[in-house]
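Hi R.,

As promised on Friday, here is the backbone we talked about, encoded as structure tokens. Could you run it through your design pipeline when you get a chance and send me back a sequence?
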């Protein structure tokens, strides 16, 4: 481990597995902060509605995608993408950038959930879908807009590309990009097919995720932690 930590100064030379093990303490702190800083406000705001909720508009894409609860597993794969993306950071500055990006994404999202709670498209028949049982037990159909799921997906894919894939040769990088786009598309389609989000939720969340990533790596804003 010590050898890995010394090698982090030249992060581009680290192998995939070495990246995952580097700066373990910093990443554990990040994961702890992520769990408390995202999960606690998210689930609390679902149950504290200070203002009347609204329903985002239904678009053609929403109507075109039928309810398919088995797609919840693609939607839930985000819970693997987030720690994987963060763990690819090979330098402390990259771990810190990921943390800043989470702040830029979550703070405006939580403010929106507080002042403008929104209803998702979850249909009545979702209650009978076995695949959704675990989700329905903890997650209410609120806080749909903007989609934090979409925001985290875009943020994580951009971060992983910047800290790892950008240093690959052209052919592996193209393969990585293809796989990343496929994973992101599966998560987005899963959100629509399992009726957790409207299409407009995903668009807004994805835009916010891209902006959060951009702000997290801007030189003038790196002091914000």
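Update: got your reply. Pasting your designed sequence below so it's all in one thread:
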């Amino acid at each position: 481990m010590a050898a890995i930590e010394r090698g982090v100064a030249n992060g581009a030379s680290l192998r995939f597995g070495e990246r995952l093990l580097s700066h373990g303490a910093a990443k554990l702190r990040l994961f702890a902060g992520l769990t408390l800083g995202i999960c606690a406000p998210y689930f609390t705001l679902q149950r504290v509605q200070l203002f009347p909720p609204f329903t985002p508009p239904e678009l053609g894409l929403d109507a075109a995608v039928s309810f398919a609860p088995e797609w919840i597993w693609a939607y839930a794969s985000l819970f693997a993408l987030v720690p994987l993306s963060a763990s690819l950071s090979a330098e402390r500055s990259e771990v810190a950038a990921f943390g800043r990006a989470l702040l830029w994404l979550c703070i405006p999202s939580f403010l929106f959930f507080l002042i403008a709670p929104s209803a998702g498209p979850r249909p009545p028949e979702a209650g009978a879908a076995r695949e959704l049982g675990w989700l329905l037990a903890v997650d209410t159909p609120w806080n749909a807009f903007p989609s934090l799921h979409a925001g985290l997906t875009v943020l994580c894919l951009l971060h992983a590309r910047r800290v790892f894939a950008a240093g690959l040769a052209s052919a592996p990088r193209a393969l990585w990009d293809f796989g990343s786009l496929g994973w992101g598309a599966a998560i987005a389609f899963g959100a629509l097919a399992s009726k957790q989000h409207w299409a407009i939720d995903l668009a807004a969340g994805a835009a916010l995720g891209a902006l959060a990533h951009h702000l997290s790596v801007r030189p003038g804003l790196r002091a914000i932690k």
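One thing I noticed while checking it: Residues 26-221 form one domain.

Thanks again,
M.
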